[in-house]
Design brief:
single chain, Glutaredoxin, four-stranded mixed beta sheet
């Protein structure tokens, strides 16, 4: 199954946001507005803009499971992201990425290991998954690996060809 086949609504309620980016290379990131890593939004937006014309998109997935660092409503999240960081990439509805309520998207994503061989539960906000144009997960990056880290950008460029 392609990652892009998972039904998940956009933050504004529009259905199937992943189908809109199907065929692109995507970086799927669980995000939060009140986290020490929140400034990564700036780098996420920068790489989204840098590679967008080559068929790349960032997809932000708000999640409130880590010390309740994404407590806002959909409207509050959207306003924060656009006014504070100028986010233009798609954001999904707020979901759970771990535990019994884990969204099926994250069932598939978390089966992939990162460079250290770690798979399973999401560690923290801003864990990143690179998905190729066919919807297969090709890389996983820890929360502290910044979006413009050479490991991330070289993986993106490799997928874009």
């Amino acid at each position: 199954m392609s990652i892009y086949d998972h039904p998940i609504a956009a933050l504004d309620g529009t259905p199937d946001v992943l189908s809109d980016v199907s065929g692109n290379v995507s970086l799927i990131v669980n995000v939060a507005s009140k986290c020490g890593l929140t400034p990564q939004y700036e780098q996420l937006e920068a790489i989204h803009e840098q590679y967008a014309d080559r068929g790349f998109t960032v997809v932000g997935v708000p999640c409130n499971q880590f010390m309740e660092q994404e407590p806002g409503s959909a409207e509050e999240i959207a306003t924060f992201c656009s006014t504070t960081y100028g986010v233009t990439f798609p954001l999904t509805e707020k979901i759970e990425v771990n535990g019994d309520g884990r969204h099926p998207l994250y069932e598939d994503l978390t089966s992939v290991a990162d460079a250290e061989g770690r798979d399973g539960d999401i560690q923290w906000n801003f864990e990143k998954f690179l998905v190729n144009a066919d919807g297969a997960v090709v890389a996983r990056f820890a929360p502290t690996v910044v979006p413009d880290d050479p490991a991330v950008t070289s993986a993106i460029e490799s997928e874009l060809g």
